[in-house]
Amino acid sequence: MEPDRPSPLFSVADLVLAVSRQLTQFDDRSGDITPLETTVLRHVDRHPGVSAGVAARATLLPPSNFSRAVRSLEAKGYVRREPDPADARTVRLHPTAKAAANLERLDATWSSLLGGILDDAEITRTIAALERIEASLAERGGASSDL
């Protein structure tokens, strides 16, 4: 009797993880930022000026892990904290020039690695599908990808 094959959706998730691991191996600075810090920095890059509380909820990280990641990113020069002008108790997070340079470097590296694999229509469909997956999973997890 042949063993059950994984479902197609399992295969999608498995391949997304495998591609992520492969992309990370080509990132010469991957040791500079931990996976936990990457999660926080990705959110701050997409939502400059986000409050720390909103970002912590959106990333689904326990407050202590989130705070540790922000402190480390700040020490490494990727994130800066600013008090909210309307409420001094609230801290706003902003990416720095170093974070922008990091994104530019990743864009160049990943574009070079992935160039020629997909045509423009496939790229558009893949981005749309992955954005739907991310948004749906964020909703199920109690966080929104556009917080």
According to CATH, what is the topology?
Answer: Arc Repressor Mutant, subunit A
Number of helices: 6
> What's the total number of strands?
3
Question: What form results from the Cα inertia axes?
Answer: globular
CATH hierarchy: architecture: Orthogonal Bundle
Radius of gyration: 18 Å
Low-confidence stretches: none
Q: Let me know the CATH homologous superfamily.
A: Winged helix-like DNA-binding domain superfamily/Winged helix DNA-binding domain
InterPro entries: HTH_MarR-typ (IPR000835), MarR/SlyA-like (IPR039422), WH-like_DNA-bd_sf (IPR036388), WH_DNA-bd_sf (IPR036390)
Protein name: MarR family winged helix-turn-helix transcriptional regulator
Domain HTH marR-type: 1-135
Pfam family, one: MarR_2
Overview of this protein structure:
Residues 1-135 form the HTH marR-type domain. Pfam families: MarR_2. InterPro entries: HTH_MarR-typ (IPR000835), MarR/SlyA-like (IPR039422), WH-like_DNA-bd_sf (IPR036388), WH_DNA-bd_sf (IPR036390). It comes from Microbacterium aquimaris. This is MarR family winged helix-turn-helix transcriptional regulator. By secondary structure, the protein is mostly helical. The chain has a single domain, classed as Winged helix-like DNA-binding domain superfamily/Winged helix DNA-binding domain (Arc Repressor Mutant, subunit A), CATH 1.10.10. It contains 6 helices and 3 strands, in the order H-H-E-H-H-E-E-H-H. Strands 1-3-2 form a 3-stranded antiparallel β-sheet. Helix 2 (35-46) crosses helix 4. The protein starts with 7 loop residues before the first helix and ends in a 7-residue tail after the last helix.
